[in-house]
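Notebook, student rotation project (T.W.).
Task set for the rotation: take a protein with a known small-molecule partner, predict the structure of the complex, and write up what can be learned from the model alone. Partner molecule chosen: zinc ion. Sequence and SMILES entered below by T.W., checked by me.
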Amino acid sequence: MEWYAWLHQAGQGLLNLLFPPYCVLCRAPGAWLCDTCLDQFPRPSGKVCPRCGSPIKDAASLCRSCAQNALTIDGVRSAVLLEGGARQAVHQLKYAGYSALATPLARLMAQCWHAAPLPVDVWAAVPLHVARERERGYNQSYLLGCEFARLVGLPAMSGMLRRVRTTRAQVGLNVSERRANVDGAFVYCPPRGGQGVYGQRVLLIDDVCTTGATLEACSVALKRAGAVSVWGLTLARAAPASDI
Ligand SMILES: [Zn+2]
Ligand SMILES: [Zn+2]
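Predicted structure of the complex:
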């Protein structure tokens, strides 16, 4: 973690005065990500698979992977492509300790949502394993989700999605290896005395989607608990070779 990011995590108000934020991409003062840089993030364009959101040639059908392996998740959308500045910003959020980047990045997710809202009742973040979260100090997907939900007015899911198994990083794995890696890694823990997720439509929030394997493993756990539909919204979409 960079010392500048660490200082800002330690305390905001006074530190903002002593060490004012600057754009992590172009170094312009005033904000952690300036509007000029945010506007330049590449947006998904062209045809995508209606199920997993990966780019395809023919939008009338599912991509080859979804056609071969039926997914339980109802659909995945992403705000930007994991390229250029977006890739650098996600890296800073995940690995350099710049948790404050979740606020401007979630604005991009809210823009994507307003352009095409999904039919959901509640949201939940894809959880990290407790050991990983302790090491990083925060779950970047949860931070993105909180800010996104505040902007669009979506309530949080009751009960909890838990990552019960540590999984190796998905980077470098192919589609079937990714699915096997996260299979059974998540469980849904209902709240005491409540209905939990039964009968609800859930929006899963994650930072990056590559093949959709992680979102799919979460979807399986939620549908097993009675969720009627599960959608995914991620900040960024990665081509399998450019994952981070
Ligand atoms: Zn900038
Ligand atoms: Zn697909």
